[in-house]
Each structure stands twice: as structure tokens, then as C-alpha cells.
Design a protein that fits this description.
7% strand; mainly alpha; 4 helices
């Protein structure tokens, strides 16, 4: 098997799942399994802090948007149900 870039990851997964089917593996400029951890170890504290702030902001936005999606989904169900309260369909 030959894996380039992200293909190196898929080759490692395949090799782990089907070791008897793999005779050899060649990784060409492939992602390292510990790449993210290694990069984090090299980043300056300021950049780590900025990344943590972005991650926290993204998590908050995901929470807000998921509530909005639920709300909009209920409104769509109400319309699809002919104007009746669609929330009764969700109580099961």
C-alpha cells in the first residue's frame, strides 16, 4: 500500500483493521499519527491561548446554533403538521 498525505492515515487504519491483507506500507509525506500533539508542544503559549479562545467561542456558537436549529425544526414540523403543535409528536 502507498499512502500520500491523508492517505497515510487511511492506510494506517486499513493496516490496523486488516493486517493479514497488507504486505507492506509506503507513506509518502503522510500525516503522522501524533502530528497534532507534536504541533501543540511546539506552539508558543500565546498561540495556544488564542486557539483555546477560538475553541471556546466555537463551542458556544455550536450550542446557540443547535438550540436555534431545534427551534426552527419544531416550527417546520408545526407547519408540516398543518398548524398543530408539532411538539406533541416529539413527546414519545
Amino acid at each position: 500500500m502507498v499512502g500520500h498525505s491523508f492517505g497515510g492515515y487511511t492506510d494506517r487504519v486499513f493496516t490496523g483493521l486488516y493486517p493479514k491483507d497488507v504486505v507492506g506500507v509506503v507513506l509518502v509525506d503522510a500525516e503522522h499519527g501524533d502530528e497534532e500533539k507534536r504541533i501543540d508542544e511546539l506552539l508558543p503559549a500565546r498561540l495556544k491561548s488564542q486557539q483555546n479562545q477560538r475553541d471556546q467561542r466555537d463551542a458556544l456558537l455550536d450550542r446557540i446554533l443547535s438550540l436555534l436549529r431545534i427551534h426552527l425544526g419544531i416550527n417546520r414540523l408545526t407547519t408540516a403538521a398543518g398548524g398543530t403543535d408539532a411538539r406533541r409528536f416529539l413527546k414519545s
